[in-house]
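Anyone? Bumping this.
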Amino acid sequence: MLTFGSSSITIVAVIAVIGLAALVCAAALRRQVLAAPEGTPGMQEIAQGVQEGASAYLSRQFRTLALFAVVVFALLFLLPGDGGVRVGRSIAFLVGAGFSAAIGYLGMWLAVRANVRVAAAATRPDGRADGARIAFRTGGVVGMSVVGLGLLGAALVVLVYRTDAPAVLEGFGFGAALLAMFMRVGGGIFTKAADVGADLVGKVEQGIPEDDPRNAATIADNVGDNVGDCAGMAADLFESYAVTLVAALILGKAVMGEQGLVFPLIVTAVGAFVALLGVLVTRVRGSENGLAAINRGFYISAVVGALLAAVAAFVYLPSSFAELSGTAELGDATADPRVVASLAVVIGVVLAGIILWITGYFTGTTSKPTLHVAATSRTGAATVVLSGIGVGFESAVYTAGVIAAAICGVFLLAGGSLWLSLFLVALAGCGLLTTVGVIVAMDTFGPVSDNAQGIAEMSGEVDEEAAQILTDLDAVGNTTKAITKGIAIATAVLAATALFGSYADAVSTALGEVAERGAGLVPAMLSFEIVSPVTLVGVILGAATVFLFSGLAIDAVTRAAGAIVFEVRRQFREHPGIMTYEERPEYGRVVDICTRDSLRELATPGLLAAFAPIAVGFGLGVGPLAGFLGGAIGAGVLMAVFLANSGGAWDNAKKIVEDGAFGGKGSEAHAATVIGDTVGDPFKDTAGPAINPLIKVMNLVSLLIAPAVVMLSVPADANQAWRIGIALVAAGIAFGAVIMSRLRAARVDREQADETAGVPAR
Amino acid sequence: MLTFGSSSITIVAVIAVIGLAALVCAAALRRQVLAAPEGTPGMQEIAQGVQEGASAYLSRQFRTLALFAVVVFALLFLLPGDGGVRVGRSIAFLVGAGFSAAIGYLGMWLAVRANVRVAAAATRPDGRADGARIAFRTGGVVGMSVVGLGLLGAALVVLVYRTDAPAVLEGFGFGAALLAMFMRVGGGIFTKAADVGADLVGKVEQGIPEDDPRNAATIADNVGDNVGDCAGMAADLFESYAVTLVAALILGKAVMGEQGLVFPLIVTAVGAFVALLGVLVTRVRGSENGLAAINRGFYISAVVGALLAAVAAFVYLPSSFAELSGTAELGDATADPRVVASLAVVIGVVLAGIILWITGYFTGTTSKPTLHVAATSRTGAATVVLSGIGVGFESAVYTAGVIAAAICGVFLLAGGSLWLSLFLVALAGCGLLTTVGVIVAMDTFGPVSDNAQGIAEMSGEVDEEAAQILTDLDAVGNTTKAITKGIAIATAVLAATALFGSYADAVSTALGEVAERGAGLVPAMLSFEIVSPVTLVGVILGAATVFLFSGLAIDAVTRAAGAIVFEVRRQFREHPGIMTYEERPEYGRVVDICTRDSLRELATPGLLAAFAPIAVGFGLGVGPLAGFLGGAIGAGVLMAVFLANSGGAWDNAKKIVEDGAFGGKGSEAHAATVIGDTVGDPFKDTAGPAINPLIKVMNLVSLLIAPAVVMLSVPADANQAWRIGIALVAAGIAFGAVIMSRLRAARVDREQADETAGVPAR
């Protein structure tokens, strides 16, 4: 029996304290942000509207999701497992979900207060540096909170459950991932429905600028930035932290025993220092490109993080696996644990650096691919769309390629031991995440400065120079947002690869238990070999789930944006005074429509993600389910990066034209890039980022149900009936949700057709 | 030792004669087509230009590809294998490639003569039925030739090589698939570069109609339809036939022995009758929707095909597997071979029917999804693009889902025997292909009537009614083209799934040989388990190859279309008389640019497809290579259907608006759908259809190299060096091609920038 010594308890307790300290740092940074001046009354009034809309949306979203969480909480009790662990896992699920929600709420809460302060700062003499500092510190609060809550949660679970912690942590990670997925989807639909709707009527039809106060959708657009890009992103990163840590701890216990439950926490604690360092050293100098500042901050913190992790490995770990109490079969592992562990962390850090570089190259305003997309605007919108898709595909391939190379590198390190390689993959994920602090902080630039620009424009109280400052900050945000998504999806691949090991372990443990009872099993259901037709069917279905999920998310945005367009058009038509500034548009109605539609639409992709693996697992078996996960990971990483980067490239291609290239604002080239940008909106901010939590949710669901699937794979009549029944119910729920969504779409189509019928053609 | 009796020889000889008879039927149909009147001298002059351009392109393409074929021919000799088989395989490779090229050339040759006859027919009193008949018979020639050459080639190989036929047939299938892939890519780039280029300048900038003779790109556009949609499609379908047959024969030998080498040929011979029946019964009645006629023709021939195949099974096969001489381990297979074989064929036929229905539903002009895409044109081009992408994703998921369901169904039939299930999957593929005759025939509607419309428009000698007839035929073609692609990709999945079995067999045979020599092997390289990190890396890389291939094809079109746009603009600028009909545009220059660019661009995706599996196989091992193929199949089927169906939906959404919906021609809604259609062009006619041969090429390459990979996986220094060396060279070639393509893209960007610099802004 594995023991958990007092020195381990001390270290984990210290790590919990470090987690608390990170939260204190976050509180201190928050105070700094709130201390900045709040701007003119005009600005404050607008900010007030955004604050109310964002709070109202998140509160309603949480009420909806609470119901869902309670159902899952109950379902978790139905799964087989030891009593105490089962209770712990279900509670940990709620805690993980709660932390995820809290981080999201915090991100939103602060962002809606930071935006007006950044707008105010931009008008002051040293506006560029000041504005950047406030926006950046806002991100710092999110980053430190992510790290703090992640560390605290994991450390507490390890303290309470000791060697049973991995099973309980599955619940923690699952809760975090599930909540984050819903927040990504719901927030993503909200923000892009409002954004696309506002642009289509405002910019394209009426020819009024973005964020013009006459556009009834502007407040909703700004609310969206906060509930999607801030709240959703924060929850997503927390989930990445939590799940990667969980994977590392599960495998750490198997490979290193007691020390394996502590070392991943140490690496993550190093990440807390690195995040703080990153927040403190990253600042825009004078008029330099914001991306240069990020790169500097990133490389400094990455090098420090890698060094500290290596030091920790050499101080904490012994020089031979023989001195460790892991139970996994390592073969003739002659490797030095200190060396392989630190090299794995370094591979993770280097991977983060390469993804940063690739994403910056493909989406930055000064790099060739984006310039190429901008140049294709000379031949119209179609070529802009096509070239952006080309850029997205290509960058996705390179990103997937370097992630694959990192896994191969880790595999070589492990010298042929499967279990060691899986653990090292998880450690590489932890290494990757040590750098996330600085990236989150810069990521937050985007939505906060976008909002600040909106408030500035609507209040009409900001001069051109200040507006230019805010535009520049926003352009940097486009690239950092793409980088964050690249990093997030890399963690998804690494965590999923590692969790595959836990999955195989769970299956073989369950097989052993069934074999003890002397029962035979359906062999095809258990084959993990990819050459088996049903395993290959699993791969196809996994890839299909990613496509369906993406399509549903994009469709939801198109549909909701259509509703916004009709509402804004209606307001312009029925209140002609709006155009002449004599009437004030009803901003609230648009916010309400966005809220209603995104809450309605988030259920379908969410149910699909949760129930598809259940249907495949119980219907086809654990082998095909492994194929399903493989297909979802393979297609998912490419789809996620494709969607994020093509969206980023289109957004910045538009900025290049707006800065005067190919005819500048108002030219046909500009109109073409606006269309490209609009296509990219749901790509990069709705469907793309949601794939990261999607993969993790499906992995964790599979891990949780694996023992039950094996138990019901005994070809006795009663078991088979249960198994097929569960599969049918799950497939029915997933498919039923899709059908419901189709029916709703058909109704929306009809309603909008009716509405147009009564309207003179434009 | 397996024998090949005289009765088998007789049957196969009869099948070869049936193949010849199919070719005779094709010749008779061809004579009918050519007997139709050729139209006015004006029409003939235009048709002449198209004929010359198409012949010139294909001749140059074949010269380029001949070089490539010779290199591959030589490389095939380097692979391990028995001497006689190796020679036969290499020769069969050349024959397969030659047949593929011949079918493509024939398709083009006839289409460029049928187009003017259809245009002439449309002006006659009974124009609709007459035009449809000629276009349809043209397709009949292609369909019968595909079936005839496929049967003849496979039967001859079986007659000559008897029980060694499977190994030789690998070469036949590989040759067919490789040539078809290049023709799909090259022809696809040609046709869409010309089409997109013509539309961007003509329709969008100058506001002149499609196919207006003042547009210098019109002849190239019409040439493109023939070298892409006709020649490429014909080669592609021949390749689908050949590879599916090859897979069935390889597995048939293993599972059923002698009879297994004959039965798949019998099923395919049934397909020849069904194709002829389909061509004869399918005709458009009065003013009915063309799709209704296809559905009727399809269902009649499908039912007949399934019945005949079942009869053949019951006549030819024994009632127990014990009476068959297969060598594969079938477990306690108590199934009746007659029953399972005929049910597998029926599953294939039903699968074809469901794909027909799904594709028709998602891309037809009267069905909800396409109407929805058309409706989104009211909110502009961006929503059209987004809704089309949503439709594409969704339809891809359903198509992949039914293919997966068919595989599961076949798997259940096999009662748990892996080998039997693989053979039955291949038989289902043969069943699917019995229906292809009628679909090819209707598919050809599209390009031929598109061309006829072009000739009619350019000659100015066709009235409005005749133009409407041609437009209607073209709309049907959009849907049938999408259906053909769906069927083709389904054969790819079934063939690839079946070939997976041959792959595993080749690996285990090679492993046995290595084990006899007493050498150890690198275990990680051999793990087919998807939970192994390197196998998962294979899955990611396989999916990545599909994305990269698609991106390269789309980029190539964007780039080549850009060159066309600049050329056409230059002609309008330097020859103002063109616009007033006083000067004749230089059509030939645009044809030359298309020819040059597509031949230059086809190398990159082609090299990637051929060398990526070599790099993965030798670099990572046979297990990861299996993962690679799985990832490519999973991502490939979804990507192929997504690209084909979103393109089809956009094209028909445009037709809906042109028919008067949402403002009709010239409205903003119309402009929005034109943009959607242009985005869809390279999707549906370049990247999408090329994925089908891509998957097969990668599968066959893997199958061919598997023994060599195993031989070099012995961890002795010399072997390792060879293995890694080969992997690096292959990766270098694949990656080098991509880099070259990037550099060319950068140069094109610069040139076009220079050209714009000297031009006044439009």
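Late reply, but here is one note on the structure posted above: Chain B touches chain A through 102 residues (CB under 8 Å).
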